UniProtKB/TrEMBL annotation:
Pfam families: MFS_1. Keywords: Membrane, Transmembrane, Transmembrane helix. It comes from Caballeronia mineralivorans PML1(12). This is MFS transporter. Its main location: membrane. The keyword NADP does not apply. Gene3D superfamilies: MFS general substrate transporter like domains. GO terms for molecular function: carboxylic acid transmembrane transporter activity. Residues 27-414 form the Major facilitator superfamily (MFS) profile domain. PROSITE patterns: MFS (PS50850), SUGAR_TRANSPORT_1 (PS00216). It is a multi-pass membrane protein. It is found in: Membrane.
Length: 426
């Protein structure tokens, strides 16, 4: 019989999904649900940037800075929540972040000025920071070693489902309640999810086993240990995440705005963005299997390359709806879907004592790049008299190539045990 290393997806003849216990599925369901709500509350604003710019009488490029306002503070929240999680556990901080970013979305819908709106987006960003990182940490520490990448890839499908939810809200809620109504759709689902997490989701088993090593005095905060012991690792992983996030957000952040600039009807915009979101769901799900088959670095590189080409084809085919639908699916599947491997790389490159702190910081320092990307693209488009389509295409291609180069410096972790990483192996 082959070893688990030789067959990373199957233990013996048993299908991989039968190797997952009910408790492990509940952990994934909780983390997945938080990521869905995170996506709904955040992506809603990408559909209404023009409405916000019009209501508060600001340029569209200035309105796009709201994405940066949300993403620009996430690294602080990720580091602080991650440090808290490394000391008290993963479960309660996950509940706190869910309540926090849901409240931030509600306040967004109640904004009375552009300044108040910016402040509420800052608050939302701070609270939503650990949504993915805590979930990825819980799944990595709860699921069997040989299925980690699959579990984290499935977790990331939540972002695609959230994107679908935001698109549906734009079609059903926006026409009747305007842009403000978009930010109230997540309240009831979030409350139900809080109850589920508190009653049915266990604490991370790896955290419980290592609690005596993790509960350290505040002077030895995990966030401090992260930078003191692993500065080089933090450096190249932070650069990688910045470039990866920057590369996906010209498409994710500006595609609805680009379609509006062409005077597409809301229903057409909904269909194209939903098709992309469906592609993301399939891409996230497939990403774990791709990472187990090709390895973490090669898997991301292959998906990025195919995704960047798909985005270029999409922005120049939007007037041919069937063709555009095809490329929208492929763009979501490959470009955005490649991020299903990001969490695996981060969790597998950091030891348990700083894992939540490190993933929280690195993932969210990366999204700063995503937050500033739409502003840079729109500013460049205006300064160089380019079309939005060309701006999206150029920045997506350049960032994908840069990320593929940086990935060559990142350690390949396919087949590694978390115990090797916890022991300090490099």
């Amino acid at each position: 019989m082959k070893s688990s290393e030789a067959t990373p997806v199957v233990a013996g003849s048993m299908p991989w999904y039968r190797d997952i216990t009910a408790a492990q599925w509940r952990v994934l369901a909780a983390a997945w649900g938080v990521w869905v709500m995170d996506a709904v509350d955040f992506l809603a604003i990408t559909f209404v940037l023009r409405d916000i710019a019009s209501e508060f009488n600001v340029p569209l490029s200035t309105a796009s800075l709201l994405l940066f306002a949300t993403y620009g503070v996430r690294w602080i929240g990720g580091l602080m929540f991650g440090s808290l999680s490394d000391r008290i556990g993963r479960k309660i901080p996950l509940v706190i972040t869910l309540v926090w970013f849901t409240g931030g979305a509600v306040l967004t819908g109640m904004s009375w000025s552009f300044v108040s709106l910016a402040v509420f987006r800052l608050l939302l960003g701070f609270g939503m920071a650990p949504g993915f990182s805590l979930g990825a940490t819980m799944v990595a520490e709860s699921w069997p070693e040989r299925h980690r990448a699959i579990g984290i890839g499935i977790l990331d499908t939540g972002w695609g489902l959230g994107a679908i939810g935001a698109a549906i809200a734009y079609d059903l809620v926006y026409p009747h309640f305007g842009w403000r109504g978009m930010f109230f759709v997540g309240v009831i689902p979030a409350l139900l999810l809080v109850v589920f997490i508190l009653l049915f989701v266990p604490e991370s088993q790896a955290f419980r086993k290592g609690a005596k090593h993790v509960r350290v005095p505040l002077r030895d905060n995990p966030a401090v240990i992260l930078f003191r012991r692993y500065p080089k690792r933090v450096g190249y992983l932070a650069l990688l995440m910045l470039v990866l996030c920057f590369g996906s957000w010209p498409f994710q952040g500006l595609f609805p705005t680009y379609l509006k600039s062409l005077s597409f009807e809301p229903l057409t915009i909904t269909w194209l963005t939903m098709t992309s979101a469906v592609g993301q769901v399939f891409g996230f799900f497939a990403s774990g299997f791709i990472a187990e088959r090709l390895g973490r670095r090669a898997g991301i590189s292959a998906m990025l390359g195919a995704g960047a080409l798909s985005v270029v084809a999409l922005v120049y085919s939007v007037n041919y709806l069937l063709l555009a639908e095809c490329f929208a699916f492929l763009s979501g599947f490959f470009l955005v879907g490649s991020s299903g491997i990001w969490g695996t790389i981060l969790t597998e490159n950091l030891p348990r004592e700083v894992r939540a702190s490190g993933v929280g910081f690195l993932y969210n320092i990366g999204v700063v790049g995503g937050g500033i990307a739409p502003y840079i693209v729109l500013s460049t488009v205006k300064a160089a008299s380019m079309t939005i389509a060309l701006g999206i295409a150029v920045f997506t291609i350049v960032a994908a190539l840069a990320a593929i180069v940086i990935l060559r410096s990142v350690r390949e972790t396919k087949g590694m045990q978390l115990s090797e990483i916890d022991g300090g192996g490099h």
